[in-house]
Predict the structure of Regulatory protein SusR.
Amino acid sequence: MNDRMKQDESKLLLSYQLASSGMYKEAVDILESIDRGTINARFLTDYYSCFDHVYGELAFYTQDKVSSAGYRKISDAYKDSLFHVVDHSTDLYLSMKETAYRDNSEFAEALQVNDMRLSKVKSGTPEYALITFHRALAFQQNGDRNQEKKFLALSALSDIQSAIKDHASLWMLAQLLYEDGDVERAYHYIRFSWDETNFYNARLRSLQSAGILSLIDKTYQAKIERQNRQLENYLMLISALVILLFVALAYIYCQMKKLSVARNNLQQVNEQLKALNEELKQINGCLQSTNIELSESNQIKEEYIGRFIKLCSTYIDKLDAYRRMVSKKISGGQTAELLRIARSQDTLDLELKELYDNFDSAFLQLFPDFVKRFNELLQPDAAILPKKGELLNTELRIFALVRLGIEDSSQIAEFLRYSVNTIYNYRAKVKNKAQVSRDDFENMVRNIR
């Protein structure tokens, strides 16, 4: 295109990037290829900024103190030129001003300038990551460790959100966490930072983080080794307990065999006792008075047990009565009447009603507040209440079975004499009225006390 302005702009961008990657010779060569006398005035700020950046980086990373001082003078000279041409409304000017305050230990003024810069950017942007990093540096020099960690963390988050690979925030934060004893997080942070640095291929950044990475890695590996030793000790302890368990099982097995032998001996003794039963008949007279007292005790036991077997006994009696009625009708030749009775649904309905009444009564004795607590799970205008004369209705009875642990719709349908689809629709309809999550509704029903 033979566009001189675009060539100069591209060279400035490329030199800045090369300097950030540690390729200082290449960056300087590119900058010196730009004619200062013919460069467009709009690029002067970038021109001086690139020179300041390159020589500033050289001064910071050069091991030779004499060379470092020389590079620092060159950087300061370009920085001075930059101050004369930079627009005072730009972030670059504010950044230079903040750096000057920070270098002079004027931390309050540096933070005020940083506040102005932060107010102009949003979190999660590259600019926010850089400004919060500068703020962390101010707190570092001021000795405020907690604030330093806070803004390093904010800077690292924005770096990651912006997909920035060349960053210092995270490995500096890892170093602080390591010094505070948080080795686990420090290790994860420094490993992540190292992977990002390798991806970006910033060689000097790798040198910066290599030392702390090695230190944290050794500490972390030592921690893992300690944990492994603990696990080995626990494994040995568990192995010893397993051996003791097998010994105990063997002992129990031997005791059970002895008990089996004792049972056989007892059986032989029982045979001998049969011969003595004749002699005990003479004592039965004396025991009759005792039997009267035992009979009273048995009545109490029968009454208590009767609460559990009453329903079964009732159905047996009804079945016997039904058998006698059928026998009588057949004997009397009343087969038509017997057929009419067999086809009638009334008897079945009465038996089902009695079954459900017994179920409802027994259930509400166990869970007297079930209806109230169940309706608390539903929306205020969707309460389910039994009709007058009822203890529970169909919806309440379905979820009463769920509360008792019967969750299979086919089992519920068989008990309530409905189709499986009807039971499924009832359950879905009630869950749609719930004011809690549909997935949690039945679990909360099962927890009703």
